[in-house]
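debug: dumping io for the single-chain case to check the tokenizer round-trip. Nothing else runs in this session.
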Amino acid sequence: MTVEALEALQQAEVIVGYSTYVKLVEPLLTGKKVISSGMKKEVDRARQALELAASGKHVAVISSGDPGVYGMAGPILEAAPDDLEIVIIPGVTAASAAAAVLGAPLMHDFAVISLSDLLTPWQTIVRRLEAATAADFVIVIYNPRSRGRSEHLEQARQIMLQHKSADTVAGTVRNCGRRGQEHSVTTLGALAVDDVDMFTTVVVGNSRTTVLHGRMVTPRGYML
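debug: decoded output
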């Protein structure tokens, strides 16, 4: 969380957000009206927040990471009237946060791909994986594996193995920036798919990514 985001929470009269994210910042919400809801209620939360703001309330919508990266900024802007002031406060998205834990894997071009097919057809996700892998991007995988999508990450791994060596450096970070954070540096071939869940970010290097001092590094090309 940035200082700007913290200040926004302090200034807001009403907080709207996904219940899991609201709990993470509960100590900061004393004395505020809090409206929370579960998964798949993003549109409802956006509309509630906009209605409250239109009535004159100072509203803050909580979104994990950066609100513009698989977050709430999109649905809010899509549903908002032209005359309502909306401020989008940048945060630290999982790709950047996980990269800092793992080392410096994003020093060259990279792609971020979500494996969630709730809103995006799986075949579209497959095409994007194939294209990014063939182009030798470093690939950051969001929403890699859930109870309802336990096979998606293994399918993605097999797609990447068509163009990447099994020795390609890869890393995982679970609970990044939260209590219980843990990480591992491994290879695409040895990636422990069964240990990955929705709280995990997976980073798969490009053909030049290496391990230095136990950390992932993708050389930018500097002459050192």
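debug: round-trip ok. The chain has a mean pLDDT of 96.
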